[in-house]
Amino acid sequence: MSETDVSGSEGTASSTPQSRMAHFLWEQLPYVVALVLAVAGVAYTNVSHQPLVGYWEFLALAIGVVCVVTKWPETQGKDAQLRLIWTQALHWIAVLVTMNIMLMSGVQQLLPTPATGLVLLTLLALGTFLAGVSLLSLQISFLGLAMGVTVPAISWLKQSVFFFLLGAVLLIGLGITFWLRQDRRPATASINNQMEA
């Protein structure tokens, strides 16, 4: 085997793990984007105090499309593909109808606006998890679980922001105190040395 063959095979071997990682990240991109968009929608709703009706509907439809597109290559035959489309369409229509019930004016009077975003995220998380279960897709189920976990995390974070601020002020105060003590020690020691001399 010549040196060029050896170096060529080493280059191919080293590029294969990178291409696998890039391929894996590319496959996970729709799930990550959906999760980021869901959390961003709740954050915007909490800040603006306005429910984003069209946003949640778009996100539900986008996740429905992701469900169909990710399962499409595994589905064999025209009947199975039509069944995939119809079952997912009915599933996501049910989720959309439930979301719109929560956005009706009578229901909105009972819920504060920031809670509406969390309720819609909870419905979206439940719909995503159930879609993953029906499609036997671990990634879609995990996306639904991740969305569901963000609901209590967001509410906990919102309630504990004040405690985080107090903790930060305490740590900054302690840091300044220790820093000032460190600066005074050498000065005090040099003054004592000068007095003894």
Number of strands: 0
Uncertain runs = 6-14
Number of domains: 1
Quaternary organisation of the protein chains: single chain
Q: What percent of the residues sit in helical stretches (DSSP H or I)?
A: over 70%
Mean pLDDT across residues: 77
Shape: flat
Q: Note the beta-strand portion.
A: under 5%
Note the run of SSEs as H and E: HHHHHH
Taking the sheet with the most strands, its summary is: none
Distance between the termini: 80 Å
What does the model show?
By secondary structure, the protein is mainly α. It has one domain. 89% of the residues lie in helices and 0% in strands. The chain has six helices and no strands. It is flat, with a radius of gyration of 28 Å. The chain crosses the membrane at residues 29-47, 53-72, 84-103, 115-133, 163-180. Keywords: Membrane, Transmembrane, Transmembrane helix.
Throw out a few tags for this protein.
197 residues, mainly alpha, 6 helices
Short structural summary:
It contains six helices and no strands.
What is the topology?
Blueprint: H1 3-48, H2 53-71, H3 78-102, H4 105-108, H5 113-135, H6 138-196
